[in-house]
């Protein structure tokens, strides 16, 4: 049976280095695995969870398709920039709108520990940033906590494998080539 991989380019810009990395990963992975790909820039939805969990908010078709892909996937790869020490707002909104109670987690009775509904899946985060190399881990820490620990792991997805690439502003062609090679390898192995 072939591994099922969801690749999400989490950059809201339609042309970015993150999209390039997601293209490389997807292209290589398709040689060996089943791949479903989403570009945040192509998705149309209201990123605001305007009622919280107090009232239902109808999911737009792109969000329904994304939820189906999350359930289908065994491995989830998220490529995202780090902006202002956090996730792009639209990417945060994607998770706010789709990782809902009774889809990705559920509370039972008075137990504050959720039932994790996405257990058994693995993930990888490929994060880019403009910070100089000596500050990459420090800048990435809040994003890793938010996206991996308090979103993916909260819902039962195993602790993410992580790749940090930066500084994009100071990167040489050699640096970018090395990062591209790393992503190509990951795609070929479905990691």
UniProtKB/TrEMBL annotation:
InterPro entries: Flavodoxin_fold (IPR003680), Flavoprotein-like_sf (IPR029039), NAD(P)H_dehydrogenase_qn (IPR051545)
Alphabetized SUPFAM superfamilies for the sequence: Flavoproteins
Pfam family, one: Flavodoxin_2
Keyword RNA-binding part of the UniProt annotation: no
Recorded GO CC terms: cytosol
Domain Flavodoxin-like fold positions: 3-167
Alphabetized UniProt keyword annotations: Oxidoreductase
GO molecular function: NAD(P)H dehydrogenase (quinone) activity
Presence of the UniProt keyword NAD in the record: no
UniProt family annotation: Belongs to the NAD(P)H dehydrogenase (quinone) family.
Protein's UniProt name: Putative NADPH-quinone reductase (Modulator of drug activity B)
């Amino acid at each position: 049976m072939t591994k099922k991989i969801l690749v999400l380019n989490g950059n809201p810009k339609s042309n970015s280095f993150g999209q390039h990395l997601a293209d490389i990963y997807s292209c290589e992975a398709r040689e060996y695995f089943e791949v479903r790909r989403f570009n945040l820039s192509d998705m149309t939805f209201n990123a605001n969870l305007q009622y919280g969990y107090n009232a239902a908010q109808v999911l737009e078709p792109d969000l329904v398709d994304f939820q189906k892909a999350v359930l289908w996937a065994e491995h989830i790869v998220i490529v995202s920039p780090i902006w202002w020490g956090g996730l792009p707002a639209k990417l945060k909104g994607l998770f706010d709108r789709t990782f809902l109670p009774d889809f990705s987690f559920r509370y039972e009775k008075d137990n504050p520990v959720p039932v994790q509904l996405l257990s058994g899946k693995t993930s990888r985060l490929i994060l880019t940033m403009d910070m100089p190399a000596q500050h990459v881990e420090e800048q990435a820490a809040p994003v890793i906590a938010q996206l991996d620990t308090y979103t993916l792991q909260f819902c039962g997805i195993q602790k993410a494998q992580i790749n940090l690439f930066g500084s994009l502003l100071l990167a040489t062609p050699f640096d970018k080539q090395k990062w591209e090679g790393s992503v190509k390898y990951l795609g070929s192995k479905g990691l």
